[in-house]
Amino acid sequence: MYDVVLLTLASERDAPGGCGSGGACCGGATGSDTGVDAADAGKTTAADNGRRTAADASGTSSDVCATDRPRVPVLACADALTARGARVQTATARSDAEIDAVLTQLDGPARPDGLTWPDSDGKTRLVVATASDAQLRAVLRRLVKRYAPAPSKRPADLRGDRTLPDLPPVAVLPLDPARGGAHRDLAAQLGLPRDPAAVAAAVLDGTPRRLDLLRNDGGSVTLDGALLGAADDAGRPLHWRARVEVDDAILTDGDEPLLVCAIGNAGGYASLEDVTLLAAPDPADGQVEVAVAVPVVVRSALGRKRVRLEVRRARGRAVSVLPREGKVPYLDDGVEGELTRKRSWWIEPGAWAVWVV
Questions:
Q1: What is d(CA 11, CA 5) in angstroms, rounded to the nearest whole number?
Q2: Distance (Å, whole) CA 286 – CA 269
Q3: Cα angle: 334, vertex 335, 340; to 5 degrees
Q4: Cα separation, 268 vs 249, whole angstroms
Q5: How big is the chain by its Cα radius of gyration, in Å?
Q6: Strand duo 260-264 + 225-228: pairing
Q7: Phi and psi dihedrals of 225, rounded to 5?
Q8: How far apart are CA 291 and CA 314, in angstroms?
Q9: Which of 212, 218, 213 is nearest to 343 (CA)?
Q10: pTM to 2 decimals?
Q11: C-alpha of 65 from chain center
Q12: For 191, left (φ over 0), alpha (ψ -120 to 50), or beta?
């Protein structure tokens, strides 16, 4: 029978500098990214449009992290697993180090090359209880940190189109009910179960569904997507400029104003209000889909000027965004930050997996 670890991320207030702080386990911004304060200059990311749907990278949100004690879905899932004969361990992590301590249980046997590698046998299985996509991303980010070899230590048995091995599958236990509206969490997009007993069944009886992962040169990962842009207090989008490239295609060279840029692995940022940004994002097709929305001035037959929104799209293996002026606010898997320099994302085909029935 399996050993199952039920991992919950705890509140930042329990551990100053821990979960939820910049660069910490709830997926805070790292590198040159900076957290966007909730009261910063009256600006919000384009996805917010006057509402906040996820935690900011500074850890000031009260609803990004789970509660201090195991919530009812966690206890119910543990009971369902135990009833099936699984050996269940519950763990609460308040920092990256505490997440890492849990992930050691997924390590495989020692390798001759000295690399830390996941166990292909999979007798220990991981369930991540998530109050937001940012929390799931935080765990995947630590899995990548643990198992991705340095370029100088790349082993011969690593796939040629990847920088890391197959990560251990995880089960996702959503802690909150599915929300309606344009933005659905990743569990809803993937059709994953939300009932604790059904999650337990997926862990014990299911098979891994492999999905693409976006890595970036800021040291983080993206499971769903990123949305770049900002709006004022009234919800009006603010213009900004950046050079956006997808493989060899240039969507904009940075000389024209942009309203928004969507980088999609899955479909969370496929639309913004009534504008379709991403046509067909697929988290398992080995490609990233990118779209920019550009305001274009056109003249009618009577010579009157009007502004038309032009959406340009491209698909490929990698995308880069180079801001031309100032800082560009963004949401990346629900985590806010500001882009201050060139950032590149690239696809890792089938690098992570979820347990499905």
A1: 19
A2: 18
A3: 130
A4: 23
A5: 21
A6: antiparallel
A7: 175, 180
A8: 7
A9: 218
A10: 0.83
A11: 15
A12: left
- Integer distance in angstroms from the first to the last C-alpha of the chain? 17
CA-closest candidate to residue 164, choices 131, 209, 212, 197? 212
Tokens linked to 290 = 């990118």
- What would the pLDDT profile of 300-330 be if each residue is shown by its tens digit? 667 677 778 899 999 999 999 999 988 999 9
Dihedral of CA 108/5/62/184: which sign? positive
Residue 201's identity, in one-letter code, is A
**Chain centre to alpha carbon of residue 338:** 16
How far apart, in whole angstroms, are the C-alpha atoms of residue 7 and residue 124?
13
Q: Could you count the other beta carbons within 10 Å of the beta carbon of residue 304? A: 8
Count of Cβ atoms closer than 10 Å to residue 317 Cβ:
15
Number of CB atoms found within 10 A of residue 61's CB: 19
Q: Give the pLDDT score at 182.
A: 58
The ranges of the chain with pLDDT < 70 are 11-70, 180-183, 299-301, 303
Tokens of 221: 């990962």
| Rounded Cα gap, residues 53 and 284, in angstroms | 25
Three-state DSSP string of the chain: CCEEEEEEECCHHHCCCCCCCCCCCCCCCCCCCECCCCCCCCCEECCCCCCCCCCCCCCCCCCCCCCCCCCHHHHHHHHHHHHCCCEEEEEEECCHHHHHHHHHHHECCCCCCCCCCECCCCCEEEEEEECCHHHHHHHHHHHHHHHCCCHHHCCCCCCCCCCCCCCCCEEEEECCCCCCCCCCCHHHHHCCCCCHHHHHHHHHHCEEEEEEEEEECCCCEECCEEEECEECCCCCEECECEEEEECCEEEEECCCCECEEEEECCCCCCEECCEECCCCCCCCCCCEEEEEEEEEEEECCCCCEEEEEEEEEEEECEEEEEECCCCEEEEECCEEEEECCCEEEEEEEEEEEEEEC
Place of tokens 């805070």: 28
Taking the C-alpha atoms of residue 218 and residue 102, their distance in angstroms, rounded to an integer, is 24
* Segment 164-178, tens digit of pLDDT: 999 999 999 999 887
Amino acid at 101: A
